[in-house]
Design brief:
By secondary structure, the protein is an all-alpha fold. It is globular and about 55 Å long. It is built from 13 helices and no strands. It has one domain (2-264).
Length: 265
């Protein structure tokens, strides 16, 4: 009973802090997409090509996509079945398995987010070095540390000023990510040569098989990359207390997943 009262109190606080925000489906879907699509997407093709054939890569995307769909659908079901739980995956785990598991999940999740933010800061500063050499060389020198810290704290300041304002910035950033990718896909479609794509499609050539291994080995090595590409699927769930309704969270999660899968494949 005491644990149930604590959960109810936490939910009431979450609802109170999220009242009036009312993020819609597209705003939450943009958060999901932005969470999943990072700077690493531009290196996905070369990372996959180094360890698998074209056929193995497609199978890895299909297998991973099916698995992540079930995760997204689980979030959709939970948001509809437990609309009072509005503090993200932490609250789901606490309500289902107790305070210790809830704490462990929450602590682990935010630790991963901290490491991820550091990684994004390094990538951003390293990219800026292209325009301002050699001030941000490697993304890990003193200037990069200062610039990355300003970037991270700047986003925190925007969030503290208001979730809607931060969401608008995130939406702009998401569009800035997706538009170049869509343009690349369109250009690649016109330049695509199917005869080259289907050459040694399953990696059965003797020299290829000796280097990459069998089909199952290729799929396994590629799935490490494909699974990493879907990290961030929980973005809408984390922001559920700011959503217009619980159904909005589920729809945004599935919509963001489908959009990212289409771009990846």
């Amino acid at each position: 009973m005491a644990d149930k009262k604590k959960v109810s109190a936490d939910n009431a606080a979450a609802q109170g802090s999220g009242s009036g925000s009312g993020l819609g489906v597209w705003a939450l879907a943009a958060i999901v997409v932005s969470s999943m699509i990072g700077g690493g997407i531009y290196s996905l093709p070369q990372n996959m090509a180094a360890g698998a054939s074209a056929g193995a890569v497609l199978l890895a995307w299909v297998i991973t996509g099916i698995g992540v769909y079930f995760i997204a659908n689980t979030f959709r079901i939970l948001s509809a079945a437990k609309p009072d739980l509005k503090a993200g995956i932490y609250m789901y785990s606490r309500a289902g398995f107790g305070p210790y598991v809830g704490f462990t999940i929450g602590w682990s999740y935010w630790l991963c987010q901290i490491c991820g933010n550091v990684g994004y800061a390094v990538i951003t500063m390293d990219a800026l070095n292209y325009f301002f050499p050699p001030y941000f060389a490697g993304g890990n020198n003193l200037a990069s540390i200062v610039g990355g810290s300003i970037l991270i704290w700047g986003f925190n300041y925007l969030v503290l000023r208001g979730i809607k304002q931060a969401t608008v910035i995130n939406l702009i950033g998401t569009v800035a990510k997706i538009v170049p990718l869509i343009l690349f896909i369109i250009i690649a479609a016109f330049m695509f040569h199917f005869d080259k794509f289907e050459f040694d499609f399953w990696g059965e050539n003797a020299s290829t098989a000796a280097k990459l291994g069998g089909l199952s080995a290729q799929i396994k090595s590629t799935m490490l990359v494909t699974l990493w590409a879907f990290i961030g699927i929980e973005g809408a769930v984390v922001m559920s207390k700011h959503a217009k309704s619980p159904k909005t969270v589920g729809r945004a999660t599935v919509l963001g997943f489908i959009g990212c899968l289409a771009i990846y494949v």
